[in-house]
Amino acid sequence: MASYTKAAQQWATFARAWYLLDAKMQPPGKIAAATVIRLEGRHKPIYHALSDCGDHVVIINTRHIAFSGNKWEQKVYSSHTGYPGGFKQVTATQLHLKDPTAIVKLAVYRMLPKNLQRRTMMQRLHLFPEDVIPEDIQKNLLQEIPQPRAVPKRLDEYTPEEIAAFPKVWTPPEDFRRK
């Protein structure tokens, strides 16, 4: 009887969990950093660099990621076909319009360790451009990874009471005229 409980306990230790991460208004680097920890299994007490104990990560809303500054136009993704004159460069905007999941996929892929386990870990990454998840994946989800950054509220999401209570920087005088 003791061996049965130990076997079940060991199976539960090595079982692969499924995590959900919402990428809406999040920078790709922060998403990748949170994802890589789960894909490698570094959040588990049994982690070892040579053991394959990582979990599945499902990332939704990759179409709605956010870059800071002017990175949509300045960040360039490069590739080479291997043939002469085969050097290709694409801006982040062009890549995002072509494939909404590609930027997050490349960020995670480049952040994983450069060894033979990288492709295996990438197979456990599931990317979706919107918040629609297939039924078979949705039933496996166990836990949600908190978003790396707080999502700012839009102006139309504030109530009139919150807008009225917001501190005013400058109160115009009564005789002030607007053009």
Task: Describe what this molecule looks like in 3D.
Helix content is 35%, strand content 14%. The termini are far apart. It is extended. By secondary structure, the chain is an alpha/beta fold. The protein has a four-stranded parallel beta sheet. Strands 3-4 form a two-stranded antiparallel ribbon.
Strand content: 5-15%
**H/I helix tally:** 8
Could you tell me the number of beta strands? 6
> What's the overall geometry?
extended
Alpha carbon gyration radius: 23 Å
Strand order of the largest sheet: 5-2-1-6
The amount of helix comes to 25-40%
In short:
The chain has eight helices and six strands. It has helices spanning 2-14, 28-40, 71-74, 92-98, 102-111, 118-123, 135-138, 160-165, and strands at residues 18-22, 56-60, 76-80, 87-91, 125-127, 143-144.
Name some characteristics of this structure.
179 residues, alpha/beta, four-stranded parallel beta sheet, two-stranded antiparallel ribbon, 8 helices, 6 strands
